Amino acid sequence: MGETAHVDSTDLGTPASPPPDHSGDAFGPLRLPLFRDRFIAATVSNVGTWMQDTAGTWLMTALTSSPLLIALMQTAASLPVLFLGLLAGATADIFDRRRLLLIWQWWMLATVALLAVLTFANIISPVMLLFLTFLLNIGSSMNNPAWQAIVPELVPHEELPNAVTLNAASNNIARALGPAFGGLMVAAFTHARTGAAWVFALNSLSFAGVIWILWKWKRKPLFKSALPAERIAGSVRSGLRYLRYAPNVQGPLIRAFIFAFFVSAVWSLLAVLAKKDLHRSSLSGAMGYGILNGCLGLGAVVAAGTLARIRKRIDADTLLAITGVYYVIVFLVLALVPQPWIIIPVLLGAGFAWTSTMSTLNVSVQLSVPGWVYARALGTYMMTFQGGLALGSVTWGMIAEHSSVRVAMLCAAVGMAVSIPFTSRIHILKGSLPDLTPYEWKRPLPTLAATPQPDDGPVRISVHYRIPQANYIAFATAIHELKGARLRDGAVRWGIYRDAANPEHINETFIMESWLEYLRSRERTTADDQGLRKRVWEMHEGDEPPRVSHQVWVAEVGPADPRDEA
């Protein structure tokens, strides 16, 4: 059930007419029925999730007055992704994504239903609430990479940025409505426990629509490998290896962690702010907290509808710098001017800045990785982002516990302001994007006297070049660019050596863990990688192309048993 593969040129057929270009239309993907059905079902489910988030956090304020325990609700929601994000991506790249999504949707439905029953029975405690929130988000963390990774299967490539933004819009429409609905339901009952229990019960039902859409979906993967699927441990290693040698992916990961770390001060302490600092205003209580959370969501929805046009006028680096500065202002307002008529418009802008930042970083990851490692990259992105939220929530919760919410917000403002000059040096979506479509191998596998078994290895591949002195500098530059491609695609070691006796003879060597990994590396080659390889080979001088040799590790053989000769 592996899902990375090349497309044989004989299967391409006659090129189809290009689809209409709606790339400038933020709502273009909704014209596609499958994506539209998925969007509606996800939005309904997300409304339930945000109702749950609001009701659960407010229930915690009813169970305890500790700012740290209240802030730990955000940590319980974020921590599973920190530990499971890469594993979730690895499983989504190996197994059938539709089946995985069905499994984890049922997991979340069952967990929320259990939480509802325990809350109705009035036996819920702070520790139990944290534990079940943690279990719920195990399902969410395992679900999300596969959920995002199916988007390229539903929309054309040119619609991908708009589809990613609409996914964010789905979550943020829910964020605008869910907290208000959740707060209203909790406030409608005399006891917070009863209102929260009804919210949990409704949320468990909200998963049914997504399950139904997935059940009906007849999935057709973009690529299907003829090779055996990777094992989970090997998939995790190859994903980490790819990210280690992919600087264009590392930048968004660093920026996502830093941004989430500081912005978590808003998410984790907003309930405390509503209960304590705004207790004399119209925004106090569960309903007030729901309204504050809804303001964030409403601003995010506005961003989702306008972001396509904004991207045409402002480059990604400038947009991220503006949103970073804006959040410094948000922290200062929440700390120094806790007045509802000021906080509401500021939070609307905060929601706009949140979606603008996270959608931009998410798109940059999705446009920077090939299909074979797609879900693993998304899982790592979510792991990094949620890790920032989890660590930040603990940090700001502890500061608020030992001082005040005001001090925590001021510390977040200072930290965000200091980070902006550093993060601005990490560029996002700058320059032309690489062509990551799979390269269609038209040459056969090497003809060998003894074809290795799949598990044989390690395997050393040597490429022998003859490079004239005049091409040496250009070759050295290009071959070291090719090094990154070799290592990203599976090589565990790489080297380039010049013959001291004959300087025109240069040998490139890279090592694969096994013959099967070498075959996989051929499938993983993108059109951009092949263009670089072609540029290197064209510098070779001679009537024949560079000579390639394949050497397989010789395992130690023990002494023969004399009885075998009898």
TrEMBL record:
Spans annotated as Disordered: 1-22
GO CC terms in record: plasma membrane
Keyword Transmembrane helix among UniProt keywords: yes
Membrane topology according to the record: Multi-pass membrane protein
Bilayer-crossing regions: 68-95, 107-136, 195-215, 253-274, 286-307, 319-337, 343-365, 377-399
Main subcellular location of this protein, as a coarse class: membrane
Keyword line: Cell membrane, Membrane, Transmembrane, Transmembrane helix, Transport
Alphabetized Pfam families for the sequence: MFS_3
Record PANTHER family: INTEGRAL MEMBRANE EFFLUX PROTEIN-RELATED, STAPHYLOFERRIN A TRANSPORTER
Protein name (record): Predicted arabinose efflux permease, MFS family
Native source species: Bryocella elongata
